[in-house]
Amino acid sequence: MLSGVNLENEKSEGITVKKSENFSEWYSQVLTKSEFIDYGIVSGTVVFKPSSYFAWQKIVEFVNNEFVKDGVENVYFSMLIPESLLEREKTHFKGFNPEVAWVTEAGKSKLKERLAIRPTSETIMYASYSKWIRSWRDLPMRYNQWNNVIRWEFKNPTPLIRTREFLWNEGHTVYASKEEAENERDFVLGVYQKALAELAALKGVVGRKTENERFAGAVNSYSIELLLPDGWALQGPDFHNDGQNFSKAFDVKFLNREGKYEYAWQNTYAISTRVLGAMVAVHGDDKGLVLPPNLAYIQVVIVPIMKKGSEKAVLEFSQQIYSELRTKYRTKLDDRDYYSPGYKYNEWELKGVPIRIEIGAKEAEGRFVTAVRRDNGVKSKIEASKVKEDIGKAMEQMQKDMLERAEKLLKNNMHEVKSYEKFKEILKEKKGILVAPWCGESECELKIKEETGAKILNVPLDQTPLDDKCIYCGKKAKYVANFARSY
Amino acid sequence: MLSGVNLENEKSEGITVKKSENFSEWYSQVLTKSEFIDYGIVSGTVVFKPSSYFAWQKIVEFVNNEFVKDGVENVYFSMLIPESLLEREKTHFKGFNPEVAWVTEAGKSKLKERLAIRPTSETIMYASYSKWIRSWRDLPMRYNQWNNVIRWEFKNPTPLIRTREFLWNEGHTVYASKEEAENERDFVLGVYQKALAELAALKGVVGRKTENERFAGAVNSYSIELLLPDGWALQGPDFHNDGQNFSKAFDVKFLNREGKYEYAWQNTYAISTRVLGAMVAVHGDDKGLVLPPNLAYIQVVIVPIMKKGSEKAVLEFSQQIYSELRTKYRTKLDDRDYYSPGYKYNEWELKGVPIRIEIGAKEAEGRFVTAVRRDNGVKSKIEASKVKEDIGKAMEQMQKDMLERAEKLLKNNMHEVKSYEKFKEILKEKKGILVAPWCGESECELKIKEETGAKILNVPLDQTPLDDKCIYCGKKAKYVANFARSY
User: Fold this and answer.
1) pLDDT by 10s per residue, chain A, length 487
2) CA-to-CA distance for A361 and A313, rounded, in angstroms?
3) I need a labelling partner for A185 at 20 to 30 A (CA). Which of A100, A111, A242, B142 fits?
4) Cβ of B76 under 8 Å from any chain A Cβ?
5) Do B74 and A50 touch (CB under 8 A)?
6) Rounded to an integer, what is the distance from CA A383 to the centroid of its chain?
7) Smallest Cα–Cα separation from B172: which of B220, B223, B120?
8) From A53, A78, A338, residue closest to B165, measured CB to CB
9) A110 CB near a chain B CB, below 8 Å?
10) Any alpha helices (H) in A265-310, and if so which ranges?
11) Contact between A108 and B114 using a beta-carbon 8 Å cutoff
12) DSSP labels for A98-118?
């Protein structure tokens, strides 16, 4: 399991441990040595360096575009929430209060009331919604914001995965009916799954959260659960039906078509920078980061191999290839004269650049390039005349292969079990996600968690009637549920 | 002058005061009644509603694109800054300390050290820069972030113009030499001026800040000063040469080509959501907001005029025009059947939509539309076959005319004066920007400010040698400076 934050700014340049041997240390090294992120000055925070920030912006762009096309509108609320407001929905407050950072002073003055830095914005937003929404004509109101939040994790901060400040979207939508509100779910989870697959090359397991694992204040929560290579699960993007819980607490009501006041139906949903952590963990290897081409800050790096006599031809040809590729791909020509080609290969591999192009005397003379894929190391010879087209194809293929690899990782580590013995055995041996029949009772869920450390990630949405028995109590199973140890 | 924050969520729908009679109340009404923003729950904060957030995102997109093309890279640092770090550059700390919001508790724990919510990020960023920068090979390092900051203004918060939380970019770049650092200025100020002109239809006055008005910690500050219709100035985007002030305080040094350690040369620069306030103030009128087409959330609204007998033809024709326009412009078909056309005209005028298209029986029959420009009310008849092209032209012209109007406002309110008497007289009569000879001494600058309330906004970069005398002390003038009362 990931833990141990290595705060030292290490000088050695390559990764010194194997992913399969010390996953936690490998993860920490790959993140910082590749310059994807750095640890922040305040413990538990990170700095997004250009490569990670770019990847996040690509996800933002994609998700935002899909949302906007569907009618979601962007807004921005202040990050400060008065304590009295945060308290108003009791379950919500109970859930978030332990990890709230409080502003108590401004300049030289003590504030009259403590202000929370948003851990999430339901309360501050719904207080305004209550003023803005008057009648059915104002609905649906589908607002979203992209921002930063703080959750003061006390145990085991893990970079990107469990950090004290992270970036995300928070969708907060309001509908006139329960049905309309519930209908939004498949659209939102669909967009998130598409972003995971097409950008981060990740595949998750979708399902409904149990009552114990629900978002604080929601009626129903749905999640996309990701699996890391160490067999631990990680909750990814999620979607919550809030029912009328918040609308009652915040007086978000509207005049319906019959002229009567009704409380509105609300949803909230989010995707966060956490998915970048999963992407690094799933796809990285012993040489460093492996970035999916669609998210890579630099997609193609050209390394000229300079030898006496051919320098001019090599550099000219490299520049020609660079001029052509850069019109279409995020390309870098690494013509630094104080590093050897070998040093450069290592550096760009560490940083996860999808395609490396090597150009030496042979290539310059033959008007072709040697392209190397970061994920599988496969080399290919590409004619200069086809370089733009073929590099595009290679990246498409790489993106596809990476997603397939992630799908395989998930599939190979999902284990159907029918008995508690087998459940414990697999959990001990290899972890992963255990797909097991469950009676639906909270008691069994909690007992299993207590005894094995595995919780129910979620319950798949499509359930076929079962003849099986709950692995814990032996009573008739109502569901098949996804269990795992989870970050 | 703008002041008085109207916290009531007013019910009356139109603007009830004239811009020329009560500018402050007009500004507050136009912002909220047009649903551009709303006041936040925490005093001194605002909510960016879809229209204002969209306008800001357009500015972000434009500026970011120019920055990235020039080699600036985006990063994201945590918003929390330990007090000990904020203190490290003394002038900087002195400048910002009075308006810092402090986090002192997390969950149930008191923090060992207070954490500032960033009022600006020099200190937290440069502490990392110090670790990252090793040699001349790492330079220039041109990092930028787009984020939210908090400055706890105690006096007179004014929405968008002086709010406790705002959105901005902060560029923080590092160079190996003073000259290179200084060279960045014209590029950055050029991008900001272009964004102001081409998007917000605003024109400002560029110049160097005096020592008294400099950014806390900078060696030289440059600003683009905007002028509001009430004759008060407003500092817009700015650029600062930090020299080696911060690099010495934060130990940002590098090994130069000669193998010696040197402190780096730094710049910082920013454009903030404040420009949206200036845009509203300059372009709005007694009917409400007037949005420049390039920033408008909705660019074109189509209002069908339904009368018995022609409903079907009118609606069909409206839908046809809508289908065509929406492929190119942000278009809305307002087919709500519970509001009259007149009500709709008022609403969209209030919201500042650049072009209104009216479609009645006459139009449907004649296959043309009536288009009305928001800024000047001019109506024109456009053939259905040319609607896409002509609406585009109309918006281009409107954007141009709005910029010209802003330029005229500025020009008409810049007064060259050679004597202190005239200076005071104009300031009393009509305010505006006073362009006056100044000896360059801080003492005169401060005396003028004390006696008239007008400070030096900035000193134009191109100065021709003067024969004039300082308006205050009568000694030989060194500069012509721009004076004004300023927000």
Assistant:
1) 565 444 333 345 799 999 999 999 999 999 999 999 999 999 999 999 999 999 999 999 999 999 999 999 999 999 999 999 999 988 988 999 999 999 999 999 999 999 999 999 999 999 999 999 999 999 999 999 999 999 998 888 899 999 999 999 999 999 999 999 999 999 999 999 999 999 999 999 999 999 999 988 899 999 999 999 999 999 999 999 999 999 999 999 999 999 999 999 999 999 999 999 999 999 999 999 999 999 999 999 999 999 999 999 999 999 999 999 999 999 999 999 999 999 999 999 999 999 999 999 999 999 999 999 999 999 999 999 999 999 999 999 999 999 999 999 999 999 999 999 999 999 998 899 999 999 999 999 999 999 999 999 999 999 887 789 999 999 999 999 999 999 9
2) 7
3) A100
4) yes
5) yes
6) 38
7) B120
8) A78
9) no
10) 274-283
11) no
12) GG-EEEEEETTEEEEEEEEEP
**Chain B neighbours among A 311-370 (CB < 8 Å)?**
336, 338
Report cis status (omega within 30 of 0) of the bond before B140.
yes
**What is the DSSP secondary structure assignment for residue A23, as one 8-state letter?**
H
ipTM of the complex: 0.96
Distance (Å) from the C-alpha of residue B234 to the closest C-alpha of chain A? 23
- In a 10 Å sphere around its CB, with 0-12 CB exposed, 13-18 middle and 19+ buried, how is residue B118 labelled? buried
How many Å lie between the alpha carbon of A102 and the closest alpha carbon of chain B? 5
Chain A contacts of B101, Cβ < 8 Å? 80, 103, 105-106, 115
Q: Which of A6, A60, A75, A126 to mutate to probe the B interface, most B CBs <10 Å? A: A75
Find tokens 């903030």 and name the residue.
B272
| B185 touches B267 (CB < 8 A) | yes
Residues 132-151, chain B: which have Cβ within 8 Å of A? 132, 137, 143, 147-148, 150
Report whether A39 contacts A46 (CB < 8 A).
yes
Residues of A with CB below 8 A from B170's CB? none
User: How far, in Å, CA of A243 to CA of A237, rounded?
Assistant: 19
- When CB atoms are compared, the residue of B40, B103, B107 closest to A117 is B103
Instruction: Give A75 to chain B, closest Cα distance, Å.
Output: 5
d(CA B389, CA B372): 15
The helix/strand/coil state of A317 is helix
Q: pTM here?
A: 0.96
As given in the structure block, the two tokens for residue B246 are: 């911060």
- In angstroms, the CA A173 to CA A73 distance is 10
Give buried/exposed letters for A442-479 (b at 16+ CB in 10 A, else e).
Answer: eebbeebbeebebbbbbbeeeeeeeeebbbbeeeebbb
The position carrying tokens 């309360």 is A123
CA neighbours within 13 Å on the CB side: how many for A375? 23
For A127, the token pair is 């207080």
CA distance readout (Å), A193 to A60, A74, A189, A202: 13, 21, 6, 8
